[in-house]
Amino acid sequence: MSVALLNVERSYKVVSATLGAKPVTTFRKVTLPFIAPSVLSESMLAFAHSIGETGATFMVMGDNTTISVLVVNMVEALAIPASLAASALVVAISFVILVAARRIGA
Fold this sequence. Notes:
Layout: H1 2-7, H2 10-18, H3 23-52, H4 54-60, H5 67-76, H6 80-104
Helix pairs in contact: 2-3, 3-6, 5-6
């Protein structure tokens, strides 16, 4: 994502400030549209990585339960239909995110 931020033309930010936009408005209206595909791609990579890190999640999760830990617990308890449903939910969410990313060109 840092590459996307570096690729935003500085002149766009300068023009925005010259026209009286506040820094928050400049970020929201100028910078964010340029880096949105990168933000979405990074979010998808982080989501996919977190699904694959079930072991590490067990060690640091505390009182919270993530969906990947829930699936493992269900399989260990032989609740196979429930674990399949939870896994299907993860696949469906991933598919929706992937389709959305493709549509916006990420």
